[in-house]
Amino acid sequence: MNPTWKARTGTSNYSVLDERNGEVVWTGTTPYASVSLDEEGYASLVARADSTPIAKYVVSTANPDLGLSPVIVVTSLTATNLEWLSENAPLEEEEEYHLAADEAGDTILPEAATQMATPLGEAKQYAIEVGTSEPVEPGDDGGEEAAPEPPADETGDGIAQDGTTSPPAPTDMPPVPMYGIDVTAPLTAEELADTSDSTASTQNASFGSPHTSIQNASVNATAGKTVRESWITYEGYIPSRSVKGPPVGCGSPSWWYAGDNRGPGFNTGKYRTRVAIKYMWSSWSHLQQIVGYRDNHTTTRFKLDGGRVVDRESSKAPLTGIDVVRWGKTTKKAHSQIIHASKNPFCAGGDIDYNSTQHIYKSGKYKVFGWHDQMPVHEVYRQQVYTDGSKSLKRVFTHKMKGLHCLLPTTCKYRTYQYVN
User: Fold this and answer.
1) Parallel, antiparallel, or unpaired: how do β-strands 124-131 and 176-183 relate?
2) pLDDT in tens, 177-215
3) Residue 314 and residue 299 in contact, taking contact as beta carbons nearer than 8 Å
4) Taking phi first (over 0 means left), then psi (-120 to 50 degrees means alpha), and beta for anything else, what does residue 158 get?
5) To bridge 129 with a disulfide, which of 19, 98, 191, 229 should be the other Cys (CB 3.0-4.6 Å)?
6) pTM of the model
């Protein structure tokens, strides 16, 4: 990629910093640079005049398997330009672009680009949905949320497997693409200092060779904390107390199914299915530092007669259709995947299907992408846990559900998505 920026009067020394790992990837005297993207196809770069940030670039390449276009986000001192190159995934005649910015609601856009009044140093989360449906629900409330304690004993069985192959996305129905961009201020000196690590493992050479690392031992020492571990949690839940069963596939259509009676939230303990992944950071690295936890809650269904429950039964689906896959890890970044097919134990078909890939960085950067059924609600959080016991939390996304019929093949479009910061 070739980032450009406005020349700064009195400055002839420019540099480009990769915020993912705190490395300077370009230095020069011109107000433009040439930077190669690695195989992840994602970068979060900051252009600096001397040591002052003057522009930021978040780039993610296309994913043809998911019908996702490249995304380019450029934040200057005055505004943010968003572009998702739709010629790679043209709109159908009835489709349009829906843009949500934090809690500002839904805006319909005529083309695959827009400029927003978010200057460098400010934070805002944008979500772009391609489709004809309801307004997009933004994935975050506009800031860092209060972070509850991670469970002392995480639910599930605490296992993960090494990566071999990944199943393809469904092909029986076209996707509904969603793009999420979390515009954030450039990392501070203290945050960058935490990414410096001269002992980075070479175990996974496919992640790319390092460039020049920022060394700031004095700042690191005075900061008083570093990131000890990161978490990704992925939950599927039904927001209402109960939901009517589908017309086919689950026996009599007169059955009702108990829901979770909740809205968005971290570690509420209320869900149909949950996967949590812990990434442990240290001066050495091994795949075993990625630990996955899987859990399903019991499914309860009942029938009503005049508003009174006349029949009730419960069953719990096995965990055999849920896999946490470890693809790679260094001291600064990790690559994992969730392959999920959890079945309603009362239904002949209709798994909760999704496939989610995570590129997670110790610095707090992430790229999360994949696909899922449009049932139930799908919600992802990322948490950072520090050595002094403090925590930070970010909701990556909340995707609404459409209905139980979307668990059945060929009845609903599946959603594809890509979220970066």
Assistant:
1) antiparallel
2) 889 999 999 988 877 776 655 333 333 322 332 333 333
3) yes
4) left
5) 98
6) 0.86
